[in-house]
Specification:
The protein has 6 helices and 13 strands. It has a 9-stranded mixed beta sheet, sandwiched between helices. Strands 2-5 form a two-stranded antiparallel ribbon. It is globular.
Length: 277
């Protein structure tokens, strides 16, 4: 039986979130908190592997107490157990400090049942770094397989996994030893509507909650702001495009006007361009 741990995060819905014009920071109160979309695909893939090979899916996250909502969503998808690491000591953590805290939580989870596979979303929509998954793998000294678009096989008995890893111009087939870590693309699966029994179980589910004191031998200097060498100094929305011109008329007239504009912008004139082989 496989023990798969999915690492998740509760994030603000970036489709709705607004920027604070005075502080140039995200106004997180302006948008509802949701399960990071990439992480939903990670949990779905973990559940599919559980159904395929047999096993248990645990989910773990670091965040404030309301993050239990994201864990319940994972239980709704099909996860078996959830763990929330929450403490003021974790506040202000960057990706390096976050990967350390999550690693310590995974090590504690593994005390009950060894972990065979860790699955993360490719990135979070509020940070877009894609660094936490590889950071966890580095701290656990296991292989990180990034941009996974398909899991071909996970063979616990022989200790290997085979995946397709997405490239710009195709994909590559990789075989790795177990345990290892996947960070997955959205295209790896489709997250279906949850069945009613899962929804009922999720509504009643209370995850295991750990504070920093529950994680055993932990270096507090590697947590939160103290353990974060990077700081986001400023965030601002991109400027809206200015000076656009609406082209009117027939298709031929619009193309002609567009060519005139391009030639004006580049200091070119009709007839000066030639195609060379």
């Amino acid at each position: 039986m496989l023990h798969i741990v999915a690492c998740i995060k509760q994030v603000p819905d970036t489709k709705i979130i607004k920027m604070n014009p005075k502080t140039n920071t995200m106004d997180r109160s302006s948008a509802p908190a949701i399960l990071n979309p990439y992480d939903a695909h990670a949990v779905e893939e973990a559940v599919r592997l559980k159904q395929r090979y047999g096993g248990v899916v645990s989910v773990v996250t670091m965040g404030p107490p309301p993050a239990v909502k994201a864990i319940r969503k994972c239980v709704e998808i099909g996860a078996d157990a959830g763990y929330l690491v929450t403490d003021r000591a974790f506040a202000g953590a960057d990706t390096l400090a976050t990967s350390y805290a999550i690693t310590k939580a995974i090590e504690k989870i593994a005390e009950t049942q060894p972990v065979d596979l860790i699955i993360c979303g490719k990135m979070t929509i509020d940070g877009d770094t894609g660094q936490v998954g590889p950071g966890i793998a580095r701290r656990l000294d296991i292989p990180p397989l990034t941009s996974v678009k398909k899991v071909v096989e996970v063979n616990k008995e022989q200790g290997y996994a085979i995946v397709h890893r997405k490239l710009e111009d195709g994909y590559e087939v990789i075989q790795s030893t177990l345990p290892c870590l996947f960070s997955v693309e959205k295209e790896i699966n489709e997250v279906p509507y949850s069945p009613l029994p899962n929804m009922l179980r999720a509504a009643r589910y209370d995850p295991v909650i750990w504070s920093v004191n529950d994680l055993g031998d932990i270096d507090r200097t590697l947590l939160g702001l103290k353990g974060s060498p990077t700081i986001v100094a400023k965030v601002w929305p991109p400027e809206k495009p200015k000076g656009g011109e609406m082209l009117e008329g027939s298709s031929q007239e619009q193309v002609a006007r567009l060519m005139d504009i391009l030639h004006e912008k580049q200091g070119l004139f009709r007839g000066e361009c030639s195609h060379r082989l």
